Amino acid sequence: MGELPIRQGRAGGRGARRALREAPDFAMLPALHRGLPTCEIMDPEHVARIDAASMAILEDVGVIFRDPIALADWKRVGADVRGERVHLDRALVRQLISTIPSSWTYRARNPEKSLPFGGKNAIFVPMTGAPFLRDLDDVRRWPTLNDLAMFHKLAHMSPALHSTAHHIVEPMDKVVAHRHLHITYSSMKHSDKTFMGMTTSGKNAEDVMTMCEILFGRDVMETTPVTTGNCNGNSPLVWDETMLSAMRAFCSRNQPVLCSPFVLGGANTPASVAPAVAQLNAEALSALAYTQVIRKGCPAIYGHYLSTVSMKSGAPMAGTPEISLMNFMIGQMARFYNVPWRTSNLLGGAKTFDAQAGYESAMTMNAVLHAGANYIWHSAGWNEAGMHCSVAKFVVDAEMCAMGYRMAEGPRWDDFDVAMQAVRDVGPGGHYLGHPHTLENFERAFFMPKMFDNNSIEQWQAEGSVEITARALEHAKKLLGDYEEPRLDAGIDEALRDFIARREREIPAVDALNTEH
Amino acid sequence: MGELPIRQGRAGGRGARRALREAPDFAMLPALHRGLPTCEIMDPEHVARIDAASMAILEDVGVIFRDPIALADWKRVGADVRGERVHLDRALVRQLISTIPSSWTYRARNPEKSLPFGGKNAIFVPMTGAPFLRDLDDVRRWPTLNDLAMFHKLAHMSPALHSTAHHIVEPMDKVVAHRHLHITYSSMKHSDKTFMGMTTSGKNAEDVMTMCEILFGRDVMETTPVTTGNCNGNSPLVWDETMLSAMRAFCSRNQPVLCSPFVLGGANTPASVAPAVAQLNAEALSALAYTQVIRKGCPAIYGHYLSTVSMKSGAPMAGTPEISLMNFMIGQMARFYNVPWRTSNLLGGAKTFDAQAGYESAMTMNAVLHAGANYIWHSAGWNEAGMHCSVAKFVVDAEMCAMGYRMAEGPRWDDFDVAMQAVRDVGPGGHYLGHPHTLENFERAFFMPKMFDNNSIEQWQAEGSVEITARALEHAKKLLGDYEEPRLDAGIDEALRDFIARREREIPAVDALNTEH
């Protein structure tokens, strides 16, 4: 039930408060420290039942690791390897995951933006991976590196976003083989917040690690996470060489990855909530255990991507009740294993930024916050099942994260007695608008969203009957006009550019995904 | 963690399931029986602190009852009455509220639609009170009695709506003085679900009670709630004669009212979450206590209406984080007093059915469900801060209630072992689409919203690029085409019509609110 974080200098009287209120405020919020209790939808017996079922899968069914190095690694630590299928004894799994840290601090290149992580601490990270964008004119088209830079700038300026992530949109004007270099540089250059690292292949991940070493220094990385990779599993029960080699690049340098089974509920899991969680849990555990085979004690994050599949059309769905339930349950499992966990936030399946997108997104955010997730990914821009990132939705989602942040902090209690005196002062039938407690507290008392119009219809019509998409795009343009690039050391900048130039010469510009060089 | 309610007769093979899936299904869901745990944002010490502060307000500041009968009643039971201000000793308050039942069964005219209520049981009730509608063509205009009938029909056909409420929209083509008669008749006639009773004056409430007696019989009402009234408080700390006289009409006949302080957070409460809840709690307790002065043991519901006020514009706001927090806290207080409680659901402040409306509405619904509310009012149609009821939003909200219902039930566990066998059958790298467990369970496994489009953009474009508003209006038209009026006994129908005709002769057609006759 912590205090609300209010910067110093706000107590300078009404005039000062008004001036500050009018000024744009891009200061990043600290990592969310949760006051909201977690939603424990399962009794301890249910948690034990999921755990036992997952462990039985790992022992009896096994997991396919389509990767010779991983298979050799597993043999080395005594797992039962039969062909590509690895059978993992529950004692071995428990022993391995026991060395995953339960919390750490993410280092940002601006130390003021470093972030405590795990336990009650959580961070919001924008969406990534969209092959299309809806741009500043709401036109759906292929993105460029400039579009990616735009999203990195917007993430930099959004107080509740703690990271710029990586390829928010795919820069289609760069060949696939070189893309990871430009994406990483854009994250590093346009913001001093933390960011994610590309895992499109082992070699690409190595390049990202090298760029992080240039930015932070190898010694720092040996003790401190500076970025995060994502490794998707192929449900049911398969991990492939691309993901595993990227995992090795990150974990061997002590950098965390999200171990993310990719769930299309009903298609690649059983058509039932609890059994789907049991399968996903087995998959996540197998990858979490492997991170510790790579490097004992390295940080790692229990991940997943969740959608349910329409059994009428085969389409993935967002914001459905089962996704909420699975989030609550996965949170309980991650806490049971004492490992930080990742989820996806504010997901929409709508083709435009219509009411469907709003409902689905807010359903997801509430699930995530009540579930107590730590790494809250895809927190801005996601629509059309991830096929596009919308500029309009991005800035609204960023404000939704600020609202979710406020809710998840819980109420303040420090002014309780003073405010109860106000009740006595005002008395029955009075009003509070002029009371000193109101004047002193109104700015932080009740969140006032910029992106939501709460005026009367008459005023709204007088202002041109503007719906949220147009309001949000206008706001995004204004934000970009106010953008100031955070200073990056000139020597580091040059070293990063030199590295990119060298790798572009070394890597053939073949336009195919996952090219290994 | 109950089973999902599946009607009998669905186990008739794939063909039968498909036929049923294509057929419209208007069967009402049972009252929601919660599996979702309640969000306990306050420690017991915080609950005690709110309780103590509220009791101190009732003792020291007092509450204004602007009503001579209520003042006389309070004197009779030993309260400290000074002018219009009633000071309530905490022992008296605790003694009075202790006789409020913690649960009961609502009787509907179709006994199959009667509803257990209170404790873990909750019901969804549509919005009421809108002076405008957005109609089947999305045109914003004044409503008529025919429009009200349309909404009553839609509520009747929505499985997750358990009530038709009362004046969902105001029938502007009826004079105010006669309106309560036509509203009540429309609720009774167009659906056999439960409904709400008008409380626009004491005499109007008496007319509603008489109509309920015609429909259910006086003896039934003596033992069983058949309707619900709403009594708004004037925060801070005032109850007026209109509301109190309506309260007496309901409570004296053993019918429950919602005791609803009307909170504009920051304007008529302190600008802080916990103190606002303490004031609201005092107000609710004073009215709940008065229900038991009227009739000891009569059912009553802890109510409230919550919005926060923009300190920039004075506008009320919906879906803000503080509204979520206050819902969690009010739920805890109601459970502390062991009284069922009411909240408001799916509220929007947008002028059209845009993404803002979606975000705000889903924020509200999640707060309400995690807070554990029993009487979940305003569950369909509310936009523009209640100034209009939208047909499009009504049918989408009704489906959202069905999704919220599914989430709040919690996961099923009855198929866990069978599904874990499916994991073994499918194995790593397989898929579940053809597995018998999937075929047997997919219909109830994952909610498939009708109102949300999850198809590819190519398919969506091929189908005309229809956004949710147009989809929802088309669905509403189809529903209305399929509507069948539930049978009402001809003698009762005639008696109701005779009563209305008589009262229309007796009550002058003066077009003013709260006319007392």
Description:
The structure is a homodimer of 517-residue chains. Chain A has a domain at 97-409: TIM Barrel. In chain A, strand 13 (257-265), helix 10 (273-294) and strand 14 (301-302) form a beta-alpha-beta unit. Chain A is globular and about 75 Å long. In chain A, 46% of the residues lie in helices and 14% in strands. Chain A is built from 18 helices and 20 strands. The longest helix of chain A has 22 residues, at 273-294. The model of chain A is unreliable at 1-21 (pLDDT under 50).
Poorly predicted parts of chain A = 1-21
Radius of gyration of chain A: 24 Å
Largest β sheet strand count, sense and barrel closure of chain A: 6 strands, mixed
CATH topology of the domain at 97-409 in chain A: TIM Barrel
CATH class of the domain at 97-409 in chain A: Alpha Beta
Mean of the pLDDT scores of chain A?
A: 94
Instruction: Say what oligomer this is.
Output: homodimer
Largest interface: A-B, 126 and 125 residues
Coarse morphology of chain A: globular
- The share of residues in extended strands of chain A comes to 5-15%
Please, how many helices of chain A?
Answer: 18
Termini separation of chain A (Å)?
51 Å
Alpha-beta content class of chain A? alpha/beta
Number of strands of chain A: 20
| Architecture (CATH level 2) name of the domain at 97-409 in chain A | Alpha-Beta Barrel
In helices, the fraction of residues of chain A equals 40-55%
Which homologous superfamily in CATH is the superfamily of the domain at 97-409 in chain A? Answer: Trimethylamine methyltransferase-like
EC number (chains A, B): 2.1.1.-
Keywords (chains A, B): Methyltransferase, Transferase
Family (chains A, B): Belongs to the trimethylamine methyltransferase family.
GO biological process, one term (chains A, B): methylation
